Every structure is written in structure tokens, then in C-alpha cells.
Amino acid sequence: MLKNEYQSLYNRGCDRKMEDVKIILSFVWVATMLVYLLGDVMRIFAGDFKPGEIEGKQMTQKMVFGMAIIMLIPIVMVVLSLILDHPINSWVNIIVAVFWIVFNLAGMKGYKAYDKFLLIVSMGFNVLTVYYAWTQFLA
Q1: Of all helices (H) and strands (E), which one includes residue 58?
Q2: Per-residue model confidence as pLDDT tens digits over 81-131
Q3: I want to staple 115 with a disulfide (CB 3.0 to 4.6 A). Which of 54, 64, 86, 111 is the partner?
Q4: How many Cβ atoms from other residues are within 10 Å of residue 9's Cβ?
Q5: Do 94 and 133 touch, CB atoms closer than 8 A?
Q6: How far apart are CA 16 and CA 79, in angstroms?
Q7: For residues 7 and 93, is the Cβ–Cβ distance under 8 A?
Q8: How far apart are CA 33 and CA 118, in angstroms?
Q9: What is the DSSP letter of 53?
């Protein structure tokens, strides 16, 4: 009987650990999104933003729609990190975090120093996401 009680406590501990990792992943996505928002706010206050234009080109509705989809990804990940079951949760978090690392590296060259710094911080959060998702995958 003692062995069954121990096994039950062990299983509850593992379940709690998975739930803890889900919460950590969700909060890391919140932090990532806040870094992106901080970059947007800083661009406005620094005067590096001209409404309706990107790099001197007039924005189209398709461009704005595409940006909305891209920027919704971290917000959706906050929710998915909490509701997806293991191992799908791990794989989705790893794939999306790696996508953001590649996406940010690809667009980094034209940015000013403060933007590059914020992108490095956000990529640090993406690496953290991969780490926690991978450790959840191995559990």
C-alpha cells in the first residue's frame, strides 16, 4: 500500500511539473510580446515611425493584415501554451520560437541600436522557450 501512495504522489508531482512548465512557457510568451510592444513604443517616441509607411513605402491593407497575423502569433502562444497537451505543446512552442528567432535575425540588419538590443532580448526569451519546451518534451 505504501508503494501505491508513493507512486500516486510521484505522479501528482509530475503532473504539477508539467503544469508549471505550461505556466512558465505562457509567461515567457507574455514577456516576448511586451518586448515587441516596447520596441514599437520606442520607435514612435524616437521619431523612427511615420504613420502609414514602412521604410518610406506606403502600407497596403494586405501588409497591415499580414503584420496583424504575425504579431498575433505570440498572443495565441500565450493561450496555446496553457491548453495544449504534452508533447504537442512542446513541439508547437519549439517550432514557433525557432520561427521568431529566424524571423528576427532576418530583419535585424536595418534596425537602430535600441531595436537590435530589444530583438536580442526577445530572442533570449525565444531560446528560453525552446529550453523549457524541450525539457517538458524530455519529461
Answers
A1: strand 57-58
A2: 999 998 999 999 999 999 999 999 998 888 899 999 999 999 999 999 999
A3: 111
A4: 10
A5: yes
A6: 18
A7: no
A8: 11
A9: E
